[in-house]
Specification:
The protein contains eight helices and two strands; from the N terminus they run αααααββααα. It has one domain. Strands 1-2 form a two-stranded antiparallel ribbon. The mean pLDDT is 93. The protein is mainly alpha-helical. A hairpin with a 2-residue loop joins strand 1 and strand 2.
């Protein structure tokens, strides 16, 4: 999926439970950092196509960031769990919806690289399930739906909890932006979710996360079986 979509999902994850601004940043980054391996585009198309979805789109990069979060966070348990989920949601979204046109091969997601799989020049060799045969194009309607849902969540957090990701840049700018948003929507900000609201949000987030990860497992199994049949 597109980087903006990942950022919207990452911001929602960072606000599922009450966290400090520093903790929110650590969790939020867990949802966007995997795309740093796409910076090869600044050098050449070949570098982008070779290393994007390779260097950081794997479980070991996830564990590396999570270890750093465990060292930096004060609310360690919550931050570690949410970072793990956020990183894996990024991987799940890309595994399911990052293909080019339908007539092109699916984009690889080498989950256990570099332990399993190897890059040979511009060609990657690895297990069949690294390529999700059900992967839909980047511009397909499910990605649009996820992006719109993520944006709605972003707006809801802004008017309900009085914050956006602009808080990482300037608290003053963020406060002013949220004030304008509340004026438009006529909402009243609170310090945290209400008890009922919080339970609903946490349960919904957990259900969506489990569904996305389960869909990846099913797609991986299908891709493996499809290759065996061929």
């Amino acid at each position: 999926m597109a980087p903006g979509t990942h950022a919207l999902i990452g911001w929602w994850t960072a606000n599922v439970v009450p966290l400090t601004r520093r903790a929110r940043l650590l969790v939020f980054l867990g949802g966007v950092l995997p795309d740093l391996d796409g910076l090869g585009l600044l050098f050449s198309d070949e570098a982008y196509l070779t290393y994007h979805h390779l260097l950081l789109h794997n479980v070991f990069a996830c564990l590396g960031w999570t270890a750093l979060v465990a060292l930096a966070a004060t609310d360690r348990l919550r931050c570690v769990v949410l970072c793990l989920l956020n990183w894996h949601l990024h991987l799940a979204c890309d595994y399911l919806g990052s293909r080019g046109p339908w007539d092109t091969p699916p984009w690889i997601l080498p989950y256990f690289y570099p332990l399993i799989g190897i890059q040979e020049g511009t060609h990657f060799v690895g297990p069949a399930w690294y390529w999700n045969q059900w992967q839909w194009p980047l511009d397909a309607w499910p990605n649009t739906l996820v992006t719109l849902g993520g944006f709605a969540g972003w707006v809801y957090i802004a008017v309900r909890l009085d914050r956006t990701w602009f808080e990482f840049v300037s608290l003053r700018m963020d406060a002013e932006f949220c004030r304008v948003m509340r004026k438009w929507f006529g909402a009243r900000a609170t310090a945290t979710w209400s008890e009922r609201e919080g339970k609903l949000i946490r349960k919904s987030y957990l259900v969506v996360t489990i569904a996305a990860l389960f869909a990846c497992v099913v797609a991986a199994a299908h891709s493996s079986l499809l290759t065996e049949v061929r």
